[in-house]
Please model this.
Amino acid sequence: MAKLETEHIFRGNLEASFNGIRQYERYPKYLPGVTKVKIIEPKVAGSRCQVLYELNLIKKFFYVLNMFEEKPGRIWWTLDDSNLMKSNEGEWLLSAKDKTKTKAKYAVEVKFRGLVPGAITDKVAQANLPAMLSGFQQLIDDYGKA
Model:
């Protein structure tokens, strides 16, 4: 099992940050390892959509998340399907720091199928975190320009 929690301050107001993060279809351009994203109709009551992600991080794999949103401050997900994961649950909690910045709390917990040592998954997650946060900042910046 891998668990990751972090806090980050994004440049961009609360609305821009929320809307930037929820641009799932643009993730391949901004987030490391994400090679494909497909938006699917929701299966779970209350979810906005499902999102199929294809990644290439050490190994190629896919997963489908049920995405839930509460404007303006919460985005969360649960796993629907994957060829590598047993579970994937997480959330973004967003709050206005001031008129131009947003405080973001990110948490995710993933359980993998088979024997994947926790030390390896934690190391991969920590190594990818700075690039992931930078990618989300770029999404937010680009949303603010639109």
Notes: The chain has one domain: 2-31+70-145. Residues 2 and 10 are 24 Å apart (CA to CA). The radius of gyration is 15 Å.
